[in-house]
Specification:
It is a single chain. The protein is of the alpha+beta class. The chain contains three helices and six strands. Strands 1-2-3 form a three-stranded antiparallel beta sheet, with no helix packed on it. A hairpin with a 7-residue loop joins strand 4 and strand 5.
Length: 137
């Protein structure tokens, strides 16, 4: 797996994945940017949320659960001094479907957190990562 990052201007960069997809990352206006895209640290959280949501959907579908929608809110706290690493990350899953088994949803979230989501497990080496979920029928 690889990616290429190219400087555009000021504090804006284009990131292109090995699979050919691209995204612009930029800084805030007060930091010299034009606010054209997410910040690099936001990209880390988005990747973590996407990785874990993918796992939860996949696990539930394999378990024959009638999952209709999954969304995840990811909130993080950072250290106050450089390097401003994440110190706490909380992921809250909202899983929608008719007749969902609460234990299976809980297990899917746990499996993603503890076994499958590489991004979550990697960030968990530096930050306290917690999870919660709710069912929506």
């Amino acid at each position: 797996m690889k990616t290429r990052i190219k400087w555009i201007e000021n504090v804006a960069f284009m990131a292109e994945s090995g699979s050919g997809h691209a995204v612009v990352m930029d800084g805030a206006i007060e930091g010299g940017g034009r606010n054209l895209g997410p910040r690099p640290m936001e990209m880390l959280l988005m990747g973590m949320g996407g990785c874990s949501a993918y796992d939860v959907v996949y696990i539930l579908k394999r378990g024959r659960e009638n999952v209709e929608d999954v969304d995840v809110d990811v909130e993080a706290e950072r250290a106050e001094t450089d390097p401003k690493v994440f110190t706490k990350i909380h992921m809250h899953f909202r899983v929608k479907g008719e007749g969902l088994n609460e234990k299976k949803v809980e297990r899917a979230v746990e499996l993603s957190a503890d076994k499958y989501c590489s991004a979550s497990i990697m960030l968990g080496k530096a930050a306290e990562v917690t999870h919660s979920f709710e069912l929506i029928n």
